[in-house]
Amino acid sequence: MKTDVEIAQEAKMLPITEIATMLGISDDHLEMYGKYKAKISLDLLKENSAKKDGKLVLVTAINPTPAGEGKTTTNVGLSMALNKLGKKAITTLREPSLGPCFGIKGGAAGGGYAQVVPMEDINLHFTGDFHAITSAHNLLAAMVDNHLQQGNPLGIDPKRVVWKRVVDMNDRALRNIVIGMGKKADGVMRESGFDITVASEIMAILCLATSLTDLKERLGRMVVGYTFKNEPVTAKELNAVGAMSLLLKDAIKPNLVQTIENTPAIIHGGPFANIAHGCNSVLATKTALKIADYVITEAGFGADLGAEKFLDIKCRAANLAPDAIVLVATVRALKMNGGVPKNELGPENLDALGKGIVNLEQHIENMQKYGVPMCVAINKFPTDTDAELKLIEDRCKALNVEVVLSDVFANGGDGGIDMAKKVIELCEMPANFAPIYDENDSIEGKINTIAKEIYRADGVEFTAEAKKQIKTLTDLGYDKMPICVAKTQYSFSDDEKLLGAPKNFNITVREIRLSAGAGFLVALTGAIMTMPGLPKVPAAEGMDISEDGTIVGLS
Taking the C-alpha atoms of 70, 74, 77 and 78 in order, what is their torsion angle to the nearest 10 degrees? Predict the structure, then answer.
C-alpha cells in the first residue's frame, strides 16, 4: 500500500470555496489561505446562533500503544461514510504540533484513505495558529522579565515566576535554563525553562474561548507568578492582554479544509492531551454544529485522558452534550495489552487477546457512566482473524455494547458505512449526559473521583508539596474548577508499564498547577513532562523535499 503522504498527494482536492458552498458558507465569511485552506469568520457562528445544533459524536479510544489504534483515521473515515449516506457531516480535529511530527509520533491528519488534506500543510505550518500562540506566550514572558528589570512595581518574587517560554519543537535541552545572565542591563538572573507550545495555557484558552471577548477575559486571568506577599499576579495587571489579543486575532478563527473524499473538515487548536484538555476548539465545534447534521470530533489519547477531559472540562465549559460515543480499538493493541511484544502481534493469539481486552472493557464501563449511547469500532488490520474479532464482539455484547468493523484506512468512506449507520442509530437514542464529578467538590474530592471511577485506583496520595499547593489554591478561591489530570497515556495508572486494567494501585499527585485563564487545575502525576525530547533517531532524519516540491517521509 502507498504511504500516507503519497495517498494525500494523489487526492483530487476541490477549491476550498466549493467545500464552503456545500456548508452554506458564503465568501464573505471566508479568509483564504491559498486555494485549499481558509479561515472561517466568527460572524458565521453569531449569525447562525439561533439554528438548532446538529448531532455531536465523540470518537475516543483504548489506551494508545505503539501498535496504533487509528482514532483520527476512524474519525475522518466516519465523517466520509456519513456523507456517502447523504448526511451533511463535518470532522473537527486538533492541529498537529511540529514537535511530535519531527519526533516519533508523526502528524495528526489521519492515515491511508481516511485523511484530511492538504496533509503536508496541515502537519507543517498550516495557517500559522501555533506561531501566533507561541508569539503571544513569549510576549507575556518578555513583559514579565521586563517588569522585573524596570523596578518591579508589582513586587513579583523572581523565584516564584511560573510563566515559562514556549517553542513548538521537541527540545529537552530547553527544559531547565538560566536567563538574565550577563550585565545588569541584561535582565534579572533567574531559573526558568521552555514548554512545548501545545502545553501553553494560551493554547488551552484559545480552544475553550467562545468569543474574542471571552478570549481576552481568560488571557487577563492567567497567573504569571506570585508576589513576595504570596498574592497572584495576572497578565491583566501587566497590561499584556491587548497586545496578546492582537497576535491571536486570526488564530482564534477556525480553519476549513477537506478530506481526501472532499468531506468538510474544521481543524483548529491543539492543546497537549496530557497537561491540558486535548480537544479541538469550542469555536470550531460550535460552528460545525450550526452548519452540519453530524459533527465528528475526538479527544487526545485514550478515553481515560481525552474523553474524560472532553466530557468533564470541554462539555462543561461550552455547555455541550454529545449524542454518541465511538470507542476505537484494534486487535493488535489489545494483544499488546495482553503482553505480546510489538513484533509478534501478527499471528492469532486468543489467549493474549483475552487478557488484554480488559483494557477495552474498562473503557466501555467508564464511558457508560456518562449516560451517552456508544459503540465500539474495531479498526481493522489485515492480520485480524475471524476468531479474534468474534472474541471482541462477544465480550462487548456481554457489556451490552454493539461492535462495528471499520476498514476506512484501506477503503475510505466505503469502509465505514456500517459504522456510520450505527452512529445514526445511536444519535436517535435518548442521551442523559452528565459529568462524572461536581466541580464544587474539593480539589482532593474531584481528583479522587476521577482516580477511583475512571482509573480504578484504590486512592490518591498527595505529596507534601501538592498538599501545600491545594491549601494555597483553596485559600485563593481557585478550588471550584474542573480538574485536568496529567498522567501517562499508556496506562490507566500513573505507571506506563502497567498495561491492561491494573488493580491494587494508588495514583500519586506530585504537583497542582493553576490554569486560571483556561479555567481548570492541572494535577501532575508520574513523570509527565511539558517539554518532550527527540528520540535517538528522529523522524526528521527521514524527511526531505525535492526540487519539484514533492515531500517524502512525512506521516
Answer: 180
136, 498 Cβ separation under 8 angstroms: no
Q: Pairing mode, if any, of strands 110-111 and 402-406? A: unpaired
Locus of grid cell 527527540 = 534
CA distance 198 to 168: 7
481 backbone φψ class: left, alpha, beta (φ>0; ψ -120 to 50)? beta
With CA atoms as reference, report the closest residue to 54 among 321, 435, 314. 321
Q: How far are the Cα atoms of 381, 406, 455 from residue 333, in angstroms, in the given order?
A: 11, 15, 19
Nearest one of 94, 68, 86 to 4, comparing CA atoms: 68
Round to whole Å and give the CA distance between 173 and 170. 9
* Closest-CA residue to 520 (of 268, 300, 272): 272
pLDDT tens digits, residue range 268-327?
999 988 889 999 999 999 999 999 999 999 998 999 999 999 999 999 999 999 999 999
Cell of 323: 449524542
Q: Give the span between the Cα atoms of 130 and 197, in whole angstroms.
A: 7
d(CA 304, CA 314): 15
pLDDT tens figures, 369-417: 999 999 999 999 889 999 999 999 999 999 999 999 999 999 999 999 9
Contact status, residue 321 vs residue 56, Cβ threshold 8 Å: yes
* pTM across the whole model: 0.94
d(CA 258, CA 22) in angstroms, rounded, equals: 11
Q: What are phi and psi of 518, to 5 degrees?
A: -65, -35
